[in-house]
């Protein structure tokens, strides 16, 4: 599970930490040796939402670089299999009422997976793994792609960004309150340094705890994407895709494969607080 959530958590934490370090020197929320909670909340919201929106705008570029995605251009040289993938994505996107077609990509991996990402419906990406095309039949592949197109059509990336912005705001706010309390226990000459270091440490800790909320939303969102996929490709194809995914998951003893967890269709079968996807059996049951 750790590998699957690493990219999502690190991108947000690194952006958040960078902005925090820069704005830390601006100050403005400590007045006469006491915290001014109003200005602190404003600073926290600025840092929190700026961090989440930067992560959103970087999402498509980051996914391509991290996963080694090759964008499939219909004007280029494509195999029949790759042309079929592009055709499926565009057909399902039109069925979903999308005005702009997503970029379509493929990445060379034996894992059976796919993901959708991007800052908007106009600048989205649907990518599938080579393993998905090898392991699954045509109907199952269409079900998987329909699921990913549904994520885009539902605006899941933007909704998650807003949720992450709210979580970030509380993370920054609480980290500074706790860091200020800790700095009051230090000697006066080192208190500013203790305060600065404590902010970074508590911000990372609270970010990890806050991710529980984001992952809970991610699991909730998967049921809606399954329903959307069923509306686009047909319930039989969506159910067939989930059943084939379950068979594949059962064959995997050690899931050490790398992927963009926030929007992958594949997830570990058993659900935990840090799972981005719900139990596959529950997804099949809900779909039925």
TrEMBL record:
The chain crosses the membrane at residues 7-30, 36-58, 166-186, 192-217. Its cofactor is Zn(2+). GO terms for cellular component: plasma membrane. The keyword rRNA-binding does not apply. It holds the Pfam family Peptidase_M48. It is found in: Cell membrane. Keywords: Cell membrane, Hydrolase, Membrane, Metal-binding, Metalloprotease, Protease, Transmembrane, Transmembrane helix, Zinc. GO terms for biological process: proteolysis. Residues 81-287 form the Peptidase M48 domain. The keyword NADP does not apply. InterPro entries: HtpX_protease, Peptidase_M48. CDD domains: M48B_HtpX_like. Its EC number is 3.4.24.-. It is a multi-pass membrane protein. One of its GO terms (molecular function) is metalloendopeptidase activity. Binds 1 zinc ion per subunit. NCBIfam families: PRK05457.1 (NF003965). Belongs to the peptidase M48 family. PANTHER family: PROTEASE HTPX. This is Protease HtpX. It comes from Cerasibacillus terrae. The gene is htpX.
């Amino acid at each position: 599970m750790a590998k699957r959530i690493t990219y999502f958590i690190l991108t947000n934490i690194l952006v958040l930490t960078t902005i925090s370090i820069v704005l830390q020197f601006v100050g403005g929320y400590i007045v006469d040796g006491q915290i001014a909670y109003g200005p602190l909340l404003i600073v926290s919201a600025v840092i929190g939402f700026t961090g989440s929106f930067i992560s959103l705008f970087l999402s498509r570029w980051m996914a391509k670089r991290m996963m080694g995605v090759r964008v499939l251009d219909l004007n280029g040289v494509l195999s029949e299999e790759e042309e079929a993938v592009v055709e499926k994505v565009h057909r399902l996107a039109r069925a979903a009422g999308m005005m702009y077609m997503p970029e379509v990509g493929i990445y060379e991996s034996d894992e059976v997976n796919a993901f959708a990402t991007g800052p908007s419906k106009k600048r989205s990406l649907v990518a599938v793994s080579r393993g998905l095309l090898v392991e699954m039949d045509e109907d199952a592949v269409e079900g998987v792609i329909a699921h990913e197109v549904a994520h885009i059509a539902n605006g899941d990336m933007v909704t998650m960004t807003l949720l992450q912005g709210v979580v970030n705001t509380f993370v920054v706010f609480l980290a500074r309150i706790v860091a200020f309390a800790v700095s009051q226990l230090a000697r006066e000459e080192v208190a500013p340094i203790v305060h600065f270091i404590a902010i970074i440490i508590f911000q990372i800790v609270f970010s990890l705890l806050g991710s529980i909320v984001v992952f809970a939303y991610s699991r909730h969102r998967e049921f809606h994407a399954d329903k959307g996929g069923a509306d686009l490709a047909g319930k039989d194809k969506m159910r067939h895709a989930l059943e084939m995914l379950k068979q594949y998951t059962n064959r995997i003893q050690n899931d050490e494969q790398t992927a963009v967890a926030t929007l992958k269709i594949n997830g570990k079968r058993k659900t935990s607080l840090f799972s981005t996807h719900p139990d596959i059996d529950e997804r099949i049951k809900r779909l039925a």
